[in-house]
Each structure stands twice: as structure tokens, then as C-alpha cells.
Design a protein that fits this description.
Helix content is about 40%, strand content about 15%. Bound molecules: 2-phosphoglycolic acid. 2-phosphoglycolic acid binds next to strand 8.
Length: about 250
């Protein structure tokens, strides 16, 4: 199956020129690769300067849930869509830390689907506690995220399992492929009653959190991940291309 590798550039790079350079580096590097597709999620102002394709699509890092109105500083799904995005990251832990609760995540998922954007829904526990509380946390996030989302949208949803403790500079380590595999099974179990067993099996589940050129293969093979969500290592074209190559050859 084609692996989906998502680059979350976060608040980088600093200029439109650098964004174009990084993007064209990735484009060149993946030209000959088969069985892998990538999504680059740049800061919103750079979207118009980049041209996506089926193989290298563009995504929003977030979106606002209302389509228009007096909301200073917000960007709607339809605006992202008409600027070239076909995906939108929703519920990233950094947005949750900035105030997005489960209900807001739900509104944003619905807004993305309404605008024709595929939501990449981030879920993941704060800590992996020994008494299994993290499973409840994950279930709560998923139940709330998809409340009222009709079955017919199952094919337009991507999940990114990103344990918060494994994300970013401060993380001591990534999850393990085995840890991810268990979580992915659990996630599909939660989604099955809502979307149907078969559809839940087909929803891509990506791993995110300190993905790099060394651990990518393990998540895709042993971990059976359908793809990866990459932060820091997506900011260097050579590193990101190496990850794409790994994904194309597993
Ligand atoms: P990281 O970020 O790869 O830098 O840990 C991942 C993410 O936040 O999506």
C-alpha cells in the first residue's frame, strides 16, 4: 500500500524563498519514487507560493471552524482549499496546548470535511501511565473528535497517533514500533462502531513523534504504520527525502 508521509513545518522556515527551496528540494527528491505520497504543511502564507501535485500534496497546519465572519487572524477551510491545500492537520498537541479541546477538534474536523480537506486528526496521550489511563484518554479524544461525523466520510479521514511525550525537542524518545502497533489496533477498535469494521480497518493511521531517518523503517514495517507525520526532520530536504525513500522501499 502507498505510504503517506506528512511534513509538519510548524513555524518554519523564515521566508517564502526558503520555503520554495525546501519544497522544490523535496519535489526533486521524490520524482522517481513509487508507492509513497507526501503532504507538506507549511505556514499558511507560503501555500500560494507552492504548487502541489497528487504525489506531493499541500496541507494546512490548522483551520478555523467557521467559514467566514468577524474572526480576526483566523483562516477557514475553504480558504486553505482555494490556496492549494487538500489536507488539514487537526488536533495537533501544540494546538491542544494552546486551547483546542476535544469539542473544538470536532468542529474543526467537520469544517475540514465540509471544505473538501482531508483532516489529519492527531491523537495521543500526555503520558504512558502504568495503569492504562492513557487508553481512556485516547478513547475520549477519538469519541469526541468524530462525534456526529457521518459514516460516508470514513474514506476522507487520516489519523496520526502522536504521543505527546514523544513530540519535539524535549522528547526523550519516540514510541516503539510495538507500542505504536498496539495503539493502532486500539484506535481501530474505537472507530469500528462508528464507521464500520471494514472502513475502520482502511483508515490510514500514521505514527508521529520524533520520527527520523533511523526509526522510520521500524514504524513502517514492524509497526505496520500506514505512514508518518514528521516535524523536525522534515525541515531538511535531504533528511525528509531519505524518509520518503525508506517509505517507498519497505
Ligand atoms: P517532531 O514533531 O517530529 O519534531 O517530534 C512531530 C509533530 O509534532 O507532529
Amino acid at each position: 500500500m502507498t505510504k503517506l508521509i506528512v511534513a509538519n513545518w510548524k513555524l518554519n522556515p523564515g521566508t517564502v524563498r526558503e520555503a520554495k527551496e525546501l519544497f522544490s528540494g523535496v519535489k526533486r527528491g521524490m520524482m522517481k519514487l513509487r508507492r509513497v505520497s507526501a503532504v507538506v504543511c507549511p505556514p499558511a502564507p507560503f501555500l500560494g507560493a507552492l504548487t502541489g501535485s497528487d504525489k506531493l500534496a499541500l496541507g494546512a497546519q490548522d483551520l478555523f471552524w467557521e467559514p467566514s465572519g468577524a474572526y480576526t487572524g483566523r483562516v477557514a477551510g475553504s480558504m486553505f482549499k482555494s490556496s492549494g491545500a487538500s489536507y488539514a492537520i487537526v488536533g495537533h498537541s501544540e494546538m491542544r496546548a494552546a486551547g483546542d479541546n476535544n469539542e473544538i477538534v470536532n468542529w474543526k474536523i467537520k469544517a475540514a470535511l465540509k471544505s473538501g480537506l482531508m483532516p489529519i486528526v492527531c491523537v495521543g496521550e500526555q503520558v504512558r501511565d502504568e495503569n492504562g489511563g492513557y487508553l481512556n484518554e485516547l478513547k475520549e479524544q477519538l469519541d469526541a473528535a468524530f462525534a456526529g461525523v457521518p459514516k460516508k466520510f470514513a474514506g476522507q479521514i487520516v489519523i496520526a497517533y502522536e504521543p505527546v511525550w514523544a513530540i519535539g525537542e524535549a522528547a526523550k524518545s519516540s514510541d516503539t514500533p510495538e507500542g505504536f502497533r498496539h495503539q493502532a489496533i486500539f484506535i481501530r477498535k474505537i472507530l469500528a462502531p462508528q464507521f464500520g469494521k471494514e472502513a475502520a480497518l482502511n483508515i490510514p493511521i500514521l505514527y508521529g513523534g520524533s520520527v527520523n531517518t533511523k526509526n522510520a523503517e521500524g514504524f513502517l514495517t514492524e509497526g505496520h504504520a500506514d505512514g508518518l507525520l514528521v516535524g523536525r526532520e522534515s525541515l531538511r530536504a535531504d533528511k525528509f527525502i531519505e524518509i520518503l525513500k525508506i517509505a517507498a522501499h519497505v
